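Entry 12.
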Amino acid sequence: MELFDISELKTRAERFGRQLSVQNIDCAVLTSNQDLFYFTGSVQKGTVVITGSGEISYFVKKNFSRAETETPLEIEEWDIGKIAAKIQGVWAMPFDITSLAEHSFYKGKLEKGPAADCSFALALTKMIKSETEIKLIKKAGLINQRVMEFAKTVYHPGTRDIDIQAEIEGYAKKELGHQGLFWVRGSNMEASMGLVVTGTDALEPTYTDFPIGGAGISPAVAQGASGRAVSESFVVDFIGSCLGYCADSTRTFFTTEPSLQISSVYSELNGLLEEIVSSSVPGKTGDEIYGHAMSIVEKRPWKDLFMGYSQKVRFIGHGIGTEVNQLPVLAPKQKTPLENGMVIAIEPKIFVPEYGIVGLENTYVLENGRLRSITGDCSRINDWII
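Predicted 3D structure (tokens):
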């Protein structure tokens, strides 16, 4: 099964090559599954070499015959001598994901000096999505929409958070074609398909770089559902994933009529989300958008409860595609201007003491100068009262 045609893959390699050249890098050596998939359409174990001119070579260790059916590229059997012959000048590996052992192996075998870091060039390349990629991300977004509607039907008095998580994950895989696995870039970064938290358990901080932590079921899985019975509300943060591409959304579900305080918090949070969306236009940077959002937050009574309770994160949105955490990031010091073709998950959340989390999130495609949600609408609180 070939997901991408040769033109699509060559365009990606050429765009990456231009980014390498800007950083005075002559070629890159890539070995991670997500990078192999992005440039070849296959995750069969091997090595991809891409030059500054955009020439791409795929050397496969295992499984060669399967790789032949998955990529339109011409492939070669993995051979370190042939790989070395492709390496000219300054070569690079992505240090954000390449292990020291793997880097040392290639450095020793290639005998061509130390490798540079091409992580940023790679991130900039993946930041702009093609029409083909956007179509796949929209398919993932539809999974999110259907999962959130299904989540309403799962709850009944006595239901535990882990029951909801198991039900929605099973439904997504059996009925919607969710691929089950997805990539989170970086060291010690992991996540399940769905994160479900309820009540004050949702306020529990943890080690992840995500806004929501959760108690988890043990110290070995120190995030998400804990097995607690659902209280007045529960939050579902879900990653839809289909044919290698992801979408991200969060909904807050209410099992009883929310109080005036919580209804007000929800309304103000949705207003903030709409303001972030309307201000996220081409040319604006993540730093500017974040600063604008925080100027609004500072005027709200919940300003100290935004994006964390005892432990906060300093971002309100992130790029998403083949990996959950891509550029651009809506956060301080992020100077990359927005462009059409970017895909961004925006996720404002408020942590309410002695209650839990009120959180919203949608994934948006920046098309024709404006963000458009591909994961549905969360503006009306009544839509999420069970």
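Annotation: The mean pLDDT is 95. Residues 128-384 form a domain with the Creatine Amidinohydrolase fold (CATH 3.90.230.10).
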